[in-house]
């Protein structure tokens, strides 16, 4: 089950490295293309 979280940084600030690393770790272990697409779309919000 995926959980959506609001960003913990302000608009205009760069995304923290940990946010990117955790998303890529989740993507690495996921087989469903739809879930991967959803994860990446949420990461770029």
UniProtKB/TrEMBL annotation:
Q: Which Gene3D superfamilies match?
A: DNA ligase, ATP-dependent, N-terminal domain (1.10.3260.10)
Q: Which domain of life is it from?
A: Eukaryota
Q: Which InterPro entries match?
A: DNA_ligase_N_sf
What processes in GO biological process is this protein linked to? DNA recombination; DNA repair
Q: Does the keyword Ligase apply?
A: yes
Entry annotated with the keyword Electron transport? no
Q: Which GO terms describe its molecular function?
A: DNA binding; DNA ligase (ATP) activity
Q: Which UniProt keywords apply?
A: Ligase
> What is the protein's name according to its record?
Uncharacterized protein
